[in-house]
Design goal:
The structure is a homodimer. Chain A is α+β, with helices and mostly antiparallel strands and about 575 residues long. Chain A folds into 3 domains: about 210 residues, BirA Bifunctional Protein, domain 2, CATH 3.30.930; about 130 residues, YbaK/aminoacyl-tRNA synthetase-associated domain (YbaK protein, Alpha-Beta Complex); about 100 residues, 3-Layer(aba) Sandwich (Rossmann fold). Chain A has 16 helices and 32 strands. In chain A, the strands form 8 sheets. In chain A, strands 3, 7, 8, 9, 10, 11, 12, 21, 24 and 32 form a 10-stranded mixed sheet that branches. In chain A, strand 27, helix 13 and strand 28 form a beta-alpha-beta unit. In chain A, helix 1 crosses helix 12, helix 2 runs antiparallel to helix 6 and helix 2 crosses helix 12. The longest helix of chain A has 21 residues. Chain A is globular, with a radius of gyration of 29 Å. Chains A and B meet through strand 1, strand 2, helix 2, strand 3 and strand 4 of A and strand 1, strand 2, helix 2, strand 3 and strand 4 of B.
């Protein structure tokens, strides 16, 4: 394509709201434009990136035996009521009414619609297994959309759903999709990890996230430095301490701690380290009040607590409820003597004599021992894993911490949707059986953003070759006729050879063209300039790395094609 | 693809609501399924057809210099208020509110969003012309969605928008898109006509519809049998009668016509032919009452009347208004003596002595002469063209009537959107100028339906090769090992050669497979059967035509490839 005919308006400044690199550069380099909060238009460069990603996704899913379909964006409320998500989903689900008053959801995901399709047309074990996918705009009415394509409200997602005769076959497909996802992200040229994850609002029994590693990622993940275990910290298991329950050392002793409610303040007042304290937090879990205990230097991991309780709604208790339950002001709660369920982290059980609130204003207790003082407490893993924690799955490993951007998620759903929606088949014995399911998502537009978070510098984007909007940019640096002629000839030769080339033929100074080229981030740049013409050479430079090679004009096309081939085959790759 | 792994559930019966062939067969052959009224899911076969159409559209638009973008589906109300369409569009525009109460439109078309994009980033004549397109789901909340993909509420549309420095360049692009559209529909293998059309809700100064010819089409079109003129009857011009205004013959004479209000009843009562009568209809046009007159054997063409009046809203006056204006019951109106604007068709002006209502209950008048009795009447073309009418553009031609399905529409918009939304550029002299625009739509999913309306028989669909879900179907007719072996080998050989093949390897009787094959409508069928195996042949048959050829097994692949090549190159074609 000729740059003079391309709509790629570059900007010197991004809007103030753009804080992360991908947002800044996607706007500045003319890939996207904002239409409303969290709602973006893709310009031609952005469209090219998205279509390259989609092509890789289609090829790998087709290779994995999945079939492409396209469901509507507008789904009848009745289906969401059947699954129970009409009530459960919350305000992120955009609900609409048509001219006749019928209610619909703008699809944020399509489990209900696909189950409805399959239950009508698939009746026999002979029609299973089945894996259907679509690539489609989705809408999630995020309270705080941000970071451009990273967390928008309208975005492009690939969602796939599989249907099986039994759990074993669903597990086989889970692995099949896991492998396809690994190939997809490798082929996109991304460095990523597959990590164990919480199943969240989608539900189900098992899931893995595919995380593109980037310092700016919003997800924290840990990975063992010895074995293969890796997980989102929301979910990452922790090795149980060797001493599981400490024996008591001394009796409870009340101490006066006037006006110091926070753990840090009490620790300072008493001159004791934080890890001697027990943090007592009250939550409301599906309407019931419960207590969670972690060591004073730790935080409660709410995802783990929710999973341990088996509830869908969890929130911190109000100050009023804390006072009602503990008969003390907020900041002085202790689990001893409370008659509600108590969940304690193993580190709390391992404390022989802890310090905690006395359930009495301005007082704490020393000598707290979980086994003795809260015998009914359940000991469960409640804290968030961190760098350096011993691995839960192997003997010698320790966790290393990473930041990641979730670009894919595979779920083993079981019968969460197929049971309430009666998606059944007749098995070989003629028995009606509910289909176990899996579901599998990829954030297509988010991949573009994640690729930039992982691949950029101070001048702009550094696209991985397989998803770059163009593979090669030729800069015609100068207005001399031989510059135009040579750059035009090279453009035609490479294009005819199937290379995806952008020719910067604009009437602009070379400096402007180089700045735009760095900003847009095409992997290979060829500069055709006046001086080079005199020497019979062009300059070839990789966007990543940056060594400039002088190449004879006659050899230029071959050299560029070799660089393109190299870039298409070398990518990042899974470490999972 | 192997049929045993394809989700293509065929049905013996379509739902009762399916009345037209495309609706019936798309459902019965397993291409689509209904999710809600006017909202359909595409199954794998449907998806394949749509993707083949999309590919042709992308290739031809790219060839024509258009750039692909993707706008959101959700557009802020503010933009639609700027253009005035938030008020004007009516209930077909689905309006939604997000969680914060902000108003949005589900995009039925994207003039506002694209103008907003262009006015922000395009400032100079150097950046023009520009033609941007997208392929995207659209939503129009039709009151009565019907006929499956023919008139759905959610559907896939290609919409393109062009921006120019002046009208002349916009006219050049109009022709460029007209030519691209002709190539697209030809390449889809459709028989179509480009016809002059009304601009409707989109507005603008000029437009052509691309109509796929089919007896079931909802549009009536006429085309001259001598010259190139063709038009939608809504718009088709009529040749002025030679005698433009007849001289009066006799004075008005009242006749008693007790209880006979309708034209047909009065004609019967008086024993006069319909073409001696003048039909008097009252309309409310943008709030004002007007009278339209056509000959008794004709109907008022409301599109022409609207255009003649230059109004946006037009509806028949209520009975009450008719009585208020004429002082007579409905059925007895005459234009003589009325003090409101009168528009008369030339055929009415040519009547020397007509019969019309007397503005008095149970009475008509004879001897009505427009020039004498309604001297202030404006004579304008008001009636709908019909088969046999003389052509308005040439001397000797007459109209032939066709039915068509509108699959594409090109509009010269002028500044209808760019002026109110201030989409301007600086011209070479530095003067701020509004950009003239064009817009160009193609109904992607409707093409699939129109192709079926034009190409089907009693057994099922007869796909044109270029948009068939598969080019070739191999039917393994029998359970013998050599049938499976030969059909599998042919499948692999053709697939490796780039032919799109469906292999019916299901565990079904040959009769079931043939019935499904006819229903699904793949253009070339190869039957591998037990009897043929003994003779060393397979049977090759075209879905259209139906002559069966016996082909030696060794020659089968070459013969099939020749038929595919033939089908890909021969299509229908424009007659415009």
């Amino acid at each position: 394509m000729r740059y003079s005919q391309l709509l790629a308006p570059t900007l010197r400044e991004a809007p103030a709201e753009a804080q992360v690199a991908s947002h800044v550069y996607l706007i500045r380099a003319g890939f996207i434009r904002k239409l409303a909060a969290g709602v973006y238009s893709l310009l031609p460069l952005g469209m090219r990136v998205v279509q390259k990603i989609e092509r890789i996704v289609r090829e790998e899913l087709s290779r994995a035996g999945a079939q492409e379909v396209l469901l509507p964006m507008v789904h009848p409320a009745e289906l969401w009521q059947e699954s129970g998500r009409w009530q459960a989903y919350g305000p992120e689900l955009l609900r609409i009414k048509d001219r006749k008053g019928a209610e619909f959801a703008m699809s944020p995901t399509a489990e209900e619609a696909i189950v409805d399709l399959v239950r009508r047309d698939v009746k026999s074990f002979r029609q299973l297994p089945l894996c259907l996918y679509q690539i489609q705009d989705k809408f999630r009415d995020e309270m705080r959309p941000r970071a451009g394509l990273m967390r928008g409200r309208e975005f492009i997602m690939k969602d796939a759903y599989s249907f099986h005769t039994d759990d074993q076959d669903a597990a086989r497909e889970y692995q099949n999709m896991f492998d396809a996802y690994s190939r997809i992200f490798s082929r996109c040229g991304l460095e990523f990890r597959a990590v164990e994850a919480d199943t969240g609002a989608i539900g189900g029994n098992q899931s893995h996230e595919f995380q593109v590693l980037a310092a700016s990622g919003e997800d924290a993940i840990v990975a063992c430095d010895q074995c293969q275990y890796a997980a989102n910290v929301e979910k990452a298991e922790l090795r149980r301490p060797k001493v599981t329950t400490a024996a008591p050392v001394r009796a409870l002793e009340e101490v006066h701690t006037p006006g110091v409610g926070s753990i840090e303040a009490v620790a300072g007042f008493l001159g004791e380290p934080l890890d001697k304290f027990v943090k007592t937090l009250l939550f409301v879990a599906d309407g019931e009040c419960v207590v969670a205990l972690v060591r004073g230097d730790r935080d409660v991991n709410e995802v783990k607590l929710k999973a341990a309780l088996g509830v869908t709604m969890l929130e911190l208790a109000t100050d009023r409820m804390v006072t009602d339950v503990t008969h003390a002001p907020v900041g002085f709660a202790g689990a001893q003597g409370l008659s509600i369920p108590v969940y304690a982290d193993p580190e709390v059980a391992a404390l022989a004599e802890g310090i905690t609130g006395a359930n009495k204003g301005d007082h704490h207790v020393r000598g707290f021992n979980l086994g003795r003082d809260v015998p009914h407490a359940k000991v469960v893993d409640l804290r968030t894993a961190a760098e350096g924690d011993p691995c839960a799955r192997c003997e010698d490993g320790h966790y290393r911490a990473f930041r990641g951007i979730e670009v894919g998620h595979v779920f083993f759903l079981g019968t969460k949707y197929s049971a309430p929606m009666k998606c059944t088949f007749l098995d070989a014995q003629g028995k009606e059986t509910v289909m176990p399911m899996g579901c599998y998502g990829i954030g297509i537009t988010r991949i573009a953003a994640a690729a930039i978070e992982q691949n950029h510098d101070g001048d702009g984007i550094v696209w991985p070759m397989p998803i770059a909007p163009f593979q090669v940019e030729i800069v015609a640096a100068g207005k001399e006729p031989d510059v135009a002629e040579t750059s035009g000839a090279l453009y035609r030769e490479l294009t005819a050879a199937g290379v995806d080339v952008l020719l910067d033929d604009r009437d602009e100074r070379p400096g402007v063209k180089f700045k735009d080229a760095d900003l847009i981030g095409i992997p290979v740049r060829v500069t055709v300039g006046k001086k080079g013409m005199a020497e019979g050479i062009v300059e070839v430079k990789r966007r990543r790395g940056g060594d400039m090679e002088k190449v004879k004009i006659a050899d230029a096309a071959a050299r560029v094609r070799a660089l393109v081939a190299e870039g298409m085959s070398v990518g990042g790759g899974a470490r999972a």
